[in-house]
Specification:
By secondary structure, the protein is α+β, with helices and mostly antiparallel strands. The chain has helices at 54-61, 67-82, 117-135, 146-149, 173-192, and strands at 13-19, 22-30, 34-41, 47-53, 86-89, 97-100, 108-111, 113-114. It has a 5-stranded antiparallel beta sheet. Strands 5-6-7 form a 3-stranded antiparallel beta sheet. Strand 3 (34-41) and strand 4 form a beta hairpin. It starts with 12 loop residues before the first strand and ends in a 48-residue tail after the last helix.
Length: 240
């Protein structure tokens, strides 16, 4: 079995490189016997081709590499393309190459060879045909609207209710016992409070205590006690 059967992560990837004032496009494709890289420059319309064969992969990972090791290796290369960690080295010389993960401890290089005008035109046309075929799935729109492909994001706030009224959950037995235990001390406190009679509405004045009922024959100094009876003192006449 070919080692490139584990390179599915690198198939049909595309990325743009902004390097200084230059802009490049990178396309990655995998076949049964190689991994192919195409690099195109926008301003001059130049194309370069790079390719890894099974021998190139074996030199890097060994001849006895497991499928898991090969898949992990391919996923790391694909991750550098997706994240845009790419660099075109020596673009103005014949020793041009595409560097993947240039800031890592062990960057990977794919040597590039420039394609002639006829080859570049053929590849460009084939790429545009693939784009057109994929666009047929989107009603031939080259750049479809976001709402046509992606679902609308859900908002945490909605001005209109989208569901019926929610039912309140029935309190569990533990909740009922907890509420009863909390309400018991409050009920005892209510019973211990003195009863205050409510005043009639409209009555703002305090009740006036009635004076004690006067006892017949009571003393004027102390109405609760009876007055002492005094016997009139008679004086004898001068004739006696």
């Amino acid at each position: 079995m070919s080692v490139f059967s584990n390179f599915a992560a690198l198939d049909e990837l595309i990325q743009v490189i902004y390097q200084n004032i230059e802009k490049y496009v990178v396309l990655s494709n995998v076949s049964d016997d190689n991994w192919t890289i195409h690099v195109g420059q926008a301003e001059q319309g130049r194309w370069w081709l790079g390719r890894w064969t099974e021998d190139d992969v074996t030199k890097l990972v060994g001849s006895n590499a497991s499928d898991i090791l090969l898949e992990t290796f391919a996923e790391k290369l694909a991750d550098s393309i997706v994240k845009g960690e790419l660099y075109v080295q020596n673009p103005d010389s014949s020793d041009i190459s595409l560097v993947l993960a240039p800031s890592s401890k062990k960057p990977m290089k794919v040597p590039l060879a420039e394609m002639d005008a006829a080859q570049a035109a053929v590849y460009t046309t084939r790429t545009l045909i693939e784009i057109a075929l994929n666009a047929q799935k989107r009603k031939c729109q080259l750049n479809p609207m976001d709402f046509a492909t992606d679902p609308l994001p859900t908002s945490s706030y909605s001005s209109r209710p989208t569901a019926g009224p929610s039912k309140k959950p029935n309190p569990s037995k533990n909740d009922a016992e907890s509420s009863a235990s909390e309400a018991a001390p409050l009920e005892r406190k209510r019973k211990d409070l003195p009863v205050v009679q409510k005043e009639k509405p409209g009555s703002n004045s305090k009740p006036v205590a009635k004076p004690p009922r006067a006892v017949k024959g009571a003393s004027l100094a102390n109405p609760n006690k009876k007055a002492r009876k005094y016997q009139a003192i008679e004086f004898g006449s001068d004739d006696e």
